[in-house]
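Sync notes, pocket subgroup
Present: LS, DG
LS reminded everyone that the earlier model was apo-only. Rerun requested with flavin mononucleotide included. Inputs:
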Amino acid sequence: MGVRSRAERTTAPQAKPRLKNLPLSEVYKLIEPGPVALLATARNGRPNVMTMSWHMMVEFEPPLIACVVSDRNFSFDALRATKECVIGIPSVDLAVKAVWIGNSSGRDADKFEAVGLTQMAASCVGAPLIGECFANLECKVVDSGFVKKYNLFILEVVKAWINPTRKNPKTIHHHGFGKFVVDGEAITLKSRKP
Ligand SMILES: Cc1cc2nc3c(=O)[nH]c(=O)nc-3n(C[C@H](O)[C@H](O)[C@H](O)COP(=O)(O)O)c2cc1C
């Protein structure tokens, strides 16, 4: 296959690692892909933002994203009713704000105001872009078939924005209960185009 390094090919096989049981309740920490994102909604002229990391790509183009938004969140009703949102991707400089946003509710506070995030008009949806995020994705809910069972929305990205002045932004990735890793060294390997 040619994927083992010379050192790996010439050394004796390693002893089998001793494996430990991982509680099923902790599986999500491995699979939760990140990056941590901010999900902005606006309902009846009231913008709100929540932190989100249970999301995944479903299709390349048009880009489809599956995301779980708990029905206990204020954002849930807004997303279900308006069928629109913006996914903003923060870099590590916004980590403290992202955690605060993810631990407080739009029911009780204007979170944009509270953390000092800038709302910008989107072009295709009513929810605001988040000025401090290095990327913003305007999304429409295109499939609600799994909302009742899993609180899972399928979003289509209808417009995507990137801030060209932000060189090499470092995203943050959630490892559960306040632990995060920051995007590291970039490497390029030969890969087939999709
Ligand atoms: C790092 C992080 C990731 C989170 N990911 C999600 C998620 O994917 N889905 C979700 O429903 N809530 C998630 N939350 C929790 C919501 O952000 C939180 O419940 C928030 O208070 C909801 O705000 P709202 O009531 O204004 O909608 C996350 C929180 C943090 C801190």
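DG: Residues 36, 48, 50-54, 68-70, 73-75, 99, 102-107, 174 surround flavin mononucleotide (CB under 6 Å).
LS: DSSP finds six helices and eleven strands in the chain.
Action: DG to write up.
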